[in-house]
Automatic annotation (TrEMBL):
Record's GO cellular component terms: cytoplasm
Annotated CDD domains: AKR_AtPLR-like (cd19093)
Keywords associated with the record: Oxidoreductase
Pfam family, one: Aldo_ket_red
GO molecular function: oxidoreductase activity
Protein name: NADP-dependent oxidoreductase domain-containing protein
Lineage summary: Eukaryota, Viridiplantae, Chlorophyta, core chlorophytes, Trebouxiophyceae
Domain of life: Eukaryota
Residue ranges of every copy of the NADP-dependent oxidoreductase domain listed in the record: 29-102, 105-279
Gene3D superfamilies: NADP-dependent oxidoreductase domain
């Protein structure tokens, strides 16, 4: 079973968040990433998310390879290392785009579980209807559905995502929230007044669409962060925790990893959560949902 001792999991590598194109990964980052991994494992974070497709070209599978190496070279207690859980994914294209082939993939999940290759199975970008279907299908075959991973944050909490959350609660499935910082827009580090602060490529296009209406929400997050002695990022991650989700924020260096850890060990009040939800509802243009999420 996928487990996490703390409140949050961690996507460790920038290859696990879009590789060079979106997150600027380069191989010379590997030594620090090993240090980041060692620190996170020693701090009690034991769930790491990856996929076979993270990385492009010659870097395909790089994230899985690095995690395997980092585990082998972890200098701490073997018992702590052995408690680490890796969540990985397979993007089965082009069959993933063909509904008639969906059942074959479900049978594949049953097979890898029965062969003892995994402790439990999960899905990604499944909507509420499809989640109910696979939940019932796997349950009949005695296969535990551990988690569904979807885009979920203060800027990704529309009716579709709330329906996914309700389905997770009904099935007893963990909701793993990817992009809990909305590609970084909820960190407060980017401003249209300073174009040089904006990322390039696809992220920059999204930022220019969403940031113009984000000031009231960021102002409220800043007020809560100041009162709590936290950062905006920590408020955003803690909000996801308060929703009962397992957020997987990225960490490409030690500073980001330590900041992520600051989201643990405390909780926003019910009033703060309500205020954040109301402010998020007033954002005129929220995040575009992943086009691959099903109904």
């Amino acid at each position: 079973m996928v487990r996490c001792r703390g409140y949050a999991a961690a996507v460790l590598l920038p290859t696990a968040r879009g590789n060079k194109l979106l997150w600027g990964y380069s191989e010379d980052m590997d030594p620090e990433l090993q240090e980041v991994f060692n620190m996170l494992v020693s701090s009690g974070i034991n769930l790491y998310d990856t996929a076979d497709s993270y990385g492009t070209g010659k870097l395909e599978g790089r994230s899985e390879q690095l995690l395997g190496r980092f585990l082998d070279e972890y200098p701490g207690s073997p018992a702590v290392r052995d408690d680490v859980r890796i969540a990985t994914k397979l993007a089965a294209y082009p069959w993933r785009l063909t509904p008639k082939q969906e059942r074959l993939m479900w049978d594949g999940l049953v097979a890898i579980y029965e062969e003892g290759l995994v402790d439990a199975v999960g899905v990604s970008n499944y909507g509420p209807k499809q989640l109910q279907k696979i939940g019932q299908y796997l349950d009949k075959r005695g296969v535990p559905l551990a988690a569904v991973q979807v885009q979920y944050s203060l800027l990704s909490r529309g009716s579709d995502q709330m329906a996914v959350k309700a389905a997770c609660d009904d099935l007893g499935v963990a909701l793993i929230a990817y992009s809990p910082l909305a590609l970084g827009m909820l960190t407060g580090k980017y401003s249209l007044d300073d174009p040089s602060s904006l990322p390039g490529g696809p992220r920059g296009l999204v930022f220019r669409q969403v940031l113009p209406g984000l000031a009231p929400l960021l102002d409220l997050m800043g007020q809560i962060a100041k009162r709590r002695g936290k950062t905006l990022s920590q408020v955003a991650i803690n909000w996801a925790i308060c929703q009962g989700a397992v957020p997987i924020p990225g960490a490409k260096d030690m500073a980001q990893a330590k900041e992520n850890l600051g989201a643990l060990g405390w909780r926003l009040s019910d009033g703060e959560v309500r205020a954040l939800n109301e402010a998020a509802d007033r954002v005129p243009k929220a995040m575009v949902q992943n086009v691959f999420q099903t109904q």
